[in-house]
């Protein structure tokens, strides 16, 4: 009975050590995550192997695993930048990004877990300053928002391609101008719209006037052609035809009096 405690203490110590070792060796990677393995006695960060994927893993207890989120993530930035004429513009933009999965070890070794602040934020800010500086406030306010969005994306992507980060999209959500500049632009756009509307009315009126002139000319030409075709012989024949129709009417009493060699008969009388 006296020997049992002496034997039990080392066993308990060994069990505790095994439990601690197992706890240090067991690593669970969650959904949408990946782990970078750090070998304490084997060269440090593992960069020549794929990262540890989702699920349960056993590693040597003296090694370590750094877990990264590998889903697409969003960075929202409010940036104050200068336009081409030196006016301060506020840009609200979002960047969708994710670490390059197979380069996760390189990312950890070169940039670390705060890679967002180290490379992504500076990259998008630099690209926004460069792009917005090419445009005037009028262009930014009206027609160039899609263009600056595409250009910011292109320039940011170039910077991040060598930083083990994948940029998926840049969205410019809002462009805010100083109120005085915004009001001046809106007044200018309104005046331009009114000017275009006035020009449209002038063009429409000119076309209507041209249409009336063409129609009148057509009628005049038709009457001139008709007059030229009505000879005395045709008119005499038409008159004779009309006289015959009147004479054939049962309700008329007809007296025909000649009016000359080529004259038409004269119809007199009624019931």
Automatic annotation (TrEMBL):
Residues 24-189 form the Band domain. The keyword Cell cycle does not apply. CDD domains: SPFH_prohibitin (cd03401). One of its GO terms (cellular component) is membrane. The chain crosses the membrane at residues 7-27. The keyword Metal-binding does not apply. It is a single-pass membrane protein. Its main location: membrane. Keywords: Membrane, Transmembrane, Transmembrane helix. SMART domains: PHB. It is found in: Membrane. Pfam families: Band_7 (PF01145). This is Peptidase. The lineage of its organism: Bacteria, Pseudomonadati, Bacteroidota, Flavobacteriia, Flavobacteriales.
């Amino acid at each position: 009975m006296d020997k049992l405690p002496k034997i039990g203490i080392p066993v308990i110590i060994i069990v505790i050590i095994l439990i601690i070792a197992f706890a240090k060796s067991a690593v669970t990677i969650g959904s949408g995550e990946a782990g970078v393995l750090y070998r304490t006695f084997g060269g440090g960060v593992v960069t020549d192997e794929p990262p540890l994927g989702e699920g349960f893993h056993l590693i040597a207890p003296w090694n370590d695993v750094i877990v990264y989120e590998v889903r697409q993530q969003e960075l929202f930035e409010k940036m104050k930048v200068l336009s081409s004429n030196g006016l301060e513009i506020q840009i609200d933009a979002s960047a969708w990004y994710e670490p390059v999965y197979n380069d996760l070890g390189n990312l950890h070794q070169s940039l670390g877990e705060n890679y967002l602040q180290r490379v992504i934020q500076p990259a998008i800010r630099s690209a926004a300053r460069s792009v917005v500086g090419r445009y005037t406030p009028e262009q930014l306010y009206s027609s160039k928002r899609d263009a600056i969005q595409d250009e910011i994306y292109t320039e940011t992507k170039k910077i991040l391609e060598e930083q083990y980060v994948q940029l998926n999209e840049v969205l410019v959500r809002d462009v805010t101008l100083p109120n005085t500049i915004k009001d001046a632009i809106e007044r200018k756009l309104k005046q331009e719209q009114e000017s275009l509307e006035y020009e449209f009315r002038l063009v429409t009126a000119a076309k209507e006037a041209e249409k009336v002139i063409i129609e009148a000319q057509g009628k005049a030409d038709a009457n001139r052609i008709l007059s030229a075709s009505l000879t005395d012989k045709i008119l005499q024949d038409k008159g004779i035809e009309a006289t015959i129709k009147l004479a054939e009417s049962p309700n008329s009493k007809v007296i025909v009096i000649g009016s000359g060699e080529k004259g038409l008969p004269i119809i007199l009388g009624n019931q």
